[in-house]
Every structure is written in C-alpha cells, then in structure tokens.
Write a structure and sequence with these properties.
Strand content: 15-25%
CATH topology of the largest domain: Alpha-Beta Plaits
Pfam family, one: AsnC_trans_reg
InterPro entries: ArsR-like_HTH, AsnC-type_HTH_dom, Dimeric_a/b-barrel, Tscrpt_reg_AsnC-like, Tscrpt_reg_AsnC/Lrp_C, Tscrpt_reg_HTH_AsnC-type_CS, WH-like_DNA-bd_sf, WH_DNA-bd_sf
Protein name: Lrp/AsnC family transcriptional regulator
Helix content: 25-40%
Shape: elongated
Distance between the termini: 15 Å
Keywords: DNA-binding, Transcription, Transcription regulation
Organism: Albidovulum sediminicola
Length: about 150
C-alpha cells in the first residue's frame, strides 16, 4: 500500500493525538467523516497503525529512573538468543529490548524507582537471564528528548 499526503497527515496527527475523534480528525485533514473513517480503518488493517495507547508519566508513577543495560551473551546460537528473548519479555521493568550490532548483543531500557530498586531488578531478574556473559548499566541523568512520533 502506498501512503499519500492525506494518509501521512492522518498518521502524523494520530500519533500525537490518538484520542482525537473522527469528526475532529476529518476536519483537520479536510475529508468527510466517512472517508476519514475508511482511511483510518485501512491504515489499521494494513498495519501502519498498530494500536492506541496512553502515554504515562514515569515520574508520577514513581519510576523516575531510566537505566540502559548493555548485555553481551555467551554465544550467538539461535537457541541462546531465543532463550534470552523469551526470558527478557517477562521482566516487567524492561520497557524496550533491542538486538544490537556493535559491542553489545542487546540493549535494554529499564525503569526503576531509584538505584536501590534497580539493584532489586538486577538481582531478581537481569542477573538470572539465560546466556548472559556481561552486563553494563548506565543511568540516565536527564531526558533531553523523548518521543514516540515517527517522522511521516
């Protein structure tokens, strides 16, 4: 499916204002409500829109500490990677896990209350992940920019 300028405007607006009503969205992209609704349905069906979420404030939820954890595994065999990936998906404090090219095999984004809470997460979960040979943690001092909006 090819995206035209109207599809891109719809995606740009929805990823910043996902609770916008169809009537408001259709007005902003200069379409009739029915045509706008059809386009949004098509964008959902084609997988351009994967879902709708509420973005929460980690500080208000007592998770102000962000830690990036670089993990190097003991090997690169498929079964080692698959076992690690299955296990890391079960760690509730891991927001993101990326398979990397470079010095580490995986990069995790973890949220915690503070350093003591991260120590608990490390002991209870991260240190028990299968296949881990090395782990390096870096604490974010301040978030300069954070967005979920993909350029369209």
């Amino acid at each position: 499916m090819q995206l035209d300028a109207t599809d891109r405007r719809i995606l740009g607006i929805l990823q910043k204002e996902g609770r916008l009503s169809n009537a408001e969205l259709s007005e902003r992209v200069n379409l009739s409500p029915s045509a706008c609704h059809r386009r949004v349905g098509r964008l959902e069906a084609e997988g351009f829109i994967q879902g709708y979420v509420a973005l929460l404030d980690a500080r208000r939820l007592d998770r102000p500490t962000t830690v990036f954890v670089e993990i190097t595994l003991s090997g690169q065999a498929d079964e080692v990677l698959e076992a690690f990936e299955r296990a890391v998906k079960l760690v509730p404090d891991v927001l993101e896990c990326h398979l990397m090219a470079g010095s580490a095999d995986y990069l995790l984004k973890v949220v915690a209350q503070d350093t003591d809470d991260f120590a608990r997460i490390h002991r209870q979960y991260l240190a028990r992940l299968p296949g881990v040979a090395q782990m390096h943690s870096s604490f974010a001092l301040r978030t300069v920019r954070q967005t979920t909006a993909i350029p369209v």
